[in-house]
Design a protein that fits this description.
By secondary structure, the chain is of the alpha/beta class. It contains 22 helices and 28 strands. It folds into four domains: 230 residues, Spore Coat Polysaccharide Biosynthesis Protein SpsA, Chain A (Alpha-Beta Complex), CATH 3.90.550; 242 residues, 3-Layer(aba) Sandwich (Aminopeptidase); 94 residues, Glucose Oxidase, domain 1 (3-Layer(bba) Sandwich), CATH 3.50.30.90; 78 residues, Winged helix-like DNA-binding domain superfamily/Winged helix DNA-binding domain (Arc Repressor Mutant, subunit A). α14 crosses α18. The chain is globular, with a radius of gyration of 30 Å.
C-alpha cells in the first residue's frame, strides 16, 4: 500500500464540556495541545497525510485559523455526527487506511502508531485498536480501519452513540474482522490523556521533564518508574461523579439533625471511606455564647384522619416531622392540628423542611394539596421522639502536609433527606479527602475536613480549637454543589484573600458563566468562620446558592435534583483550586484591601462606630428574645439582616455609614438594629 493512502485524522474541537478549549491550551513555550499531537505524529514513517477534522461551528474557527498559519490541512464537518465528519474527510482526501487519533493525546508515540499500522497492514482485518480491552497507558490509544468499513458504518450506523463516537459500529456489530493490539503487561492505570485540568498539569510536567522529541511511550514509562509521585496528580478522580452519587443515595434516607443517632449513622458511613475522628460534645457544654442543646432522636410519627387512616407517616418521608419536635401522642381537632402544620402554598406538591432546634415545639409538614383535603373531625397524632441530655456529634479528618498551614473544608451533616443543600457538599468533601489522602507525595498544605451540624457545629469546633485557628490559611464551605446551575462563589469577609483570588481565577479559566458574590453575614457556616473575632479567609464555592432555587428546603431537593455530572464538574473545580493553592504555596503576597477598613478616618457627627462584644461567632439571639422578635413579616426580616450586618462588621473600625454602603440597608434600620443590640449588651458605641 502506498504511504499517501494512509491518512491520519485528528479530531479536535473547542467545546469540550470538561476542559473547554483544551486543544488550544499551551503545553510548553508556544506549543498548544493540538500542536504537540501534530508534532509527535510528524515523526511517523507510515502516515502519508495528516488532517485535523473539526466542526463547522464558529467556536472552532480558531482551530482552522491556527492550522492555516502552520500549513496543516483542516476539514470542517458535523459537530455531533462525528462519524459523518470522518467519512467525508477520508473521502475528500482519498484515504484507504484511516488512523484515528483524538486531539487529547499530545504525547502520542509515533513509533507505537507505526507498529499498530504495520500490524493492521500485515493482517487480514478491517479494524484494529489498542484498547478493547485497554492495556497500554491511557493517552496512547490508536484506532485504524479501512475506508470500505468506514463507509459501511457511515451508511448503516443508526444509534446516536455510534454516530458520535465513530467506531462502535465497527467493533460491536461483529460484521467486521476486528483485532485488539494488546500489551504484554497491563499499564492502563497510567494516564496522560488531556481530559481535565489536572491531566493538563501532568502533561505539562512530562514535557518539562523529558527534553527529547518526539517523546516515546518508553520515555514516559521510564519517568513513571523514576517519579511515580508525579503521576498521582490525576489519579483517584471521580471523573463522572458516580462514586459521589452512590454515597449520596446511601445517605439520603437517614433522618439527621443537629444531634442524634442519624448524624452518628451518617458519620459511621463516611468513616467507611475516610478515617474520621468522631467527637462527642455533651449537652450543656458552653461554646462561646451558645450551649450544646439536648439530644434529639425519633422513632416514628404519624397523623391519623377521623376515618382511622394514616395520612402522614414519618417512615414515608422524614421531612413530614418538624425537626426537633418534642414527643406528643393525643387526639385533637382539625383547628388545633392546623396550628402545628406547615405547608408551601406556592409549591403545593412539595413538603417543606422546618426545624425548631431551640424552642420546644411539635409539628408536621405536608404538601399544601394534601392540607387542602383535610376534613373536619378529630385526628390522632403521634411523634415518638426523645429530647434529653446527650451530646452533639461531629466528624473530623486531618491530612498532614509538609507544613502546618491548613486548608479547611467544612460541610454540614444535619439536614435529613435533603440532597443538594447539605448532602452534595458532604459527598464532595469525602471524594476530595480520598483524593488528597491517596497522593503518594505529601502536599505542601495540611488539609482539614469538618463534617459538622450547621451553625452550632461550626461554633463548637471554633470554640474547642482556638489554638489551631491561626494555622488556617484558606477555607471553603461546601454546600449546594450538585444542581445544574452555574458556579457561584461567595467571597470571604476579607474579600481579596488568596482563596478568593484563586477560586475566581479557576472560574474565569473555565470559560463558563459564573456568579460572584461579596461576603454577606447570612447563609451557611462561612458567617461563623468570618465573624470579626476570627475573620478567617473562608469563602463558599457553590452552584446555585442556597435559597435561590425553588427546591431549597423542600422534598423536591431529592435524588432527581442532583446529577452525577454536576457533582463531577464541581469536584473538578475544587480540585483545580487545591492544585493552584499547592502550586502557589509561599508565593502569595497579601493585598488585603478590605472593602471598608479605614483606621484613622474622621467621622461626621451623624455617623457612629460600634464594637461587637461577642466577636467570636454570632451570639445566640433567641435566648435574648431578639430572634423571635425578628421572625415573621418582611419588615422583621429586614431587621434580622440589619442585626447580622451590624454584628459582623462592628469591629471598632467600620461605621454605620460604612455598613450602609456595603449592605444596601437603610441607615435608619441599621440604627434601629444597633439600638436594640446595645440594649441587649451585644455591642457598644465607641468614640472616634
Amino acid at each position: 500500500m502506498k504511504k499517501k493512502s494512509i491518512g491520519c485524522i485528528v479530531q479536535a474541537r473547542m467545546g469540550s464540556s470538561r476542559l473547554p478549549k483544551k486543544v488550544m491550551s499551551i503545553i510548553y513555550e508556544n506549543k498548544t495541545v493540538l500542536d504537540c499531537v501534530i508534532d509527535q505524529l510528524s515523526h511517523s514513517k507510515l502516515i502519508g497525510n495528516l488532517v485535523v477534522a473539526t466542526t463547522s461551528k464558529k467556536i472552532d474557527d480558531p482551530i482552522e485559523n491556527h492550522l492555516q498559519k502552520n500549513g496543516i490541512s483542516c476539514f470542517r464537518g458535523n459537530e455531533n455526527d462525528v462519524l459523518d465528519r470522518y467519512y467525508q474527510c477520508a473521502k475528500k482526501h482519498n484515504f484507504e487506511t484511516i488512523v484515528r487519533i483524538p486531539a487529547d493525546k499530545p504525547i502520542i508515540d509515533p513509533l507505537f502508531v507505526d507498529k499498530v499500522i504495520q500490524k493492521f497492514l500485515e493482517s487480514d482485518i478491517d479494524y484494529i485498536s489498542t484498547f478493547h480491552p485497554p492495556s497500554f497507558p491511557i493517552g496512547s490509544e490508536v484506532e485504524i480501519f479501512n475506508f470500505s468499513s468506514l463507509e459501511n458504518a457511515w451508511k448503516n450506523a443508526s444509534l446516536p452513540y455510534e454516530r458520535e463516537h465513530v467506531t462502535p459500529y465497527l467493533y460491536n456489530t461483529k460484521k467486521f474482522k476486528a483485532m485488539n493490539y494488546a500489551n504484554k503487561k497491563n499499564q492502563s492505570s497510567i494516564r496522560y490523556v488531556v481530559d481535565r485540568y489536572e491531566d493538563l498539569l501532568l502533561v505539562k510536567k512530562i514535557f518539562s521533564k523529558i527534553s527529547k522529541r518526539p517523546i516515546l511511550m518508553q520515555d514516559i514509562l521510564q519517568l513513571f518508574e523514576q517519579e511515580k509521585s508525579l503521576f498521582e496528580i490525576n489519579k483517584n478522580i471521580d471523573y463522572d461523579g458516580k462514586n459521589m452519587y452512590k454515597l449520596l443515595k446511601k445517605l439520603y434516607p437517614i433522618c439527621r439533625s443537629i444531634t442524634g443517632n442519624g448524624t452518628r449513622k451518617t458519620l459511621k458511613i463516611i468513616s467507611e471511606q475516610i478515617p474520621l475522628i468522631i467527637h462527642e460534645v455533651p449537652t450543656g457544654t458552653n461554646v462561646f455564647d451558645w450551649t450544646i442543646p439536648k439530644e434529639w432522636n425519633i422513632k416514628d410519627a404519624y397523623i391519623k384522619a377521623p376515618n382511622g387512616k394514616k395520612i402522614i407517616e414519618f417512615k414515608n418521608s422524614n421531612l413530614h416531622v418538624l425537626n426537633y419536635s418534642i414527643p406528643v401522642h393525643k387526639t385533637i381537632s382539625l383547628s388545633e392540628l392546623k396550628e402545628h402544620l406547615f405547608t408551601l402554598p406556592k409549591q403545593p406538591d412539595a413538603i417543606p423542611y422546618k426545624t425548631s432546634y431551640y424552642a420546644e415545639n411539635w409539628g408536621f409538614c405536608m404538601s399544601h394539596n394534601q392540607f387542602l383535603k383535610l376534613e373536619n373531625g378529630n385526628y390522632e397524632i403521634l411523634i415518638d421522639s426523645k429530647l434529653k441530655k446527650g451530646s452533639l456529634t461531629y466528624g473530623e479528618y486531618y491530612i498532614k502536609g509538609k507544613f502546618e498551614e491548613e486548608v479547611l473544608f467544612s460541610c454540614y451533616v444535619c439536614h435529613p433527606s435533603i440532597c443538594n443543600d447539605s448532602l452534595s457538599g458532604v459527598v464532595l468533601a469525602v471524594e476530595l479527602a480520598k483524593y488528597i489522602s491517596n497522593l503518594k507525595q505529601k502536599p505542601n498544605y495540611s488539609f482539614r475536613f469538618l463534617f459538622i451540624p450547621e451553625t452550632i457545629g461550626a461554633i463548637t469546633w471554633l470554640a474547642r480549637n482556638q489554638q489551631k485557628i491561626k494555622k488556617i490559611k484558606h477555607g471553603l464551605v461546601m454546600t449546594c454543589v450538585g444542581d445544574s446551575g452555574p458556579s457561584t462563589y461567595k467571597k470571604s469577609r476579607q474579600g481579596n484573600s488568596e482563596i478568593d483570588q484563586t477560586v475566581i481565577s479557576v472560574l474565569k479559566d473555565s470559560k463558563e458563566n459564573f456568579k460572584l458574590l461579596d461576603f454577606f453575614p447570612l447563609g451557611s457556616d462561612e458567617r461563623q468562620y468570618c465573624s470579626p473575632g476570627f475573620n478567617l479567609p473562608v469563602g463558599s464555592l457553590m452552584r446555585t446558592m442556597y435559597g435561590k432555587f425553588p427546591e431549597y428546603h423542600t422534598s423536591a431537593d431529592d435524588l432527581n435534583f442532583v446529577k452525577e455530572e454536576f457533582l463531577a464538574d464541581t469536584f473538578s473545580k475544587y480540585l483545580k483550586v487545591i492544585l493552584k493553592l499547592e502550586e502557589n504555596y509561599g508565593k502569595f503576597t497579601s493585598n488585603n484591601n478590605n472593602k471598608i477598613i479605614r483606621k484613622n478616618k474622621k467621622l461626621d457627627k451623624n455617623d457612629h462606630v460600634f464594637l461587637n462584644l461577642y466577636p467570636k461567632c454570632e451570639p445566640q439571639l433567641g435566648k435574648r428574645g431578639i430572634y423571635h422578635d425578628i421572625l415573621g413579616q418582611n419588615q422583621d426580616f429586614v431587621k434580622e439582616k440589619a442585626i447580622m450586618w451590624i454584628l459582623s462588621f462592628s469591629d471598632g473600625i467600620n461605621s454605620i455609614k460604612d455598613i450602609e454602603k456595603i449592605s444596601k440597608i437603610d441607615i435608619n434600620m441599621l440604627m434601629e438594629a444597633s439600638s436594640l443590640l446595645c440594649e441587649k449588651n451585644l455591642i457598644k458605641e465607641i468614640t472616634n
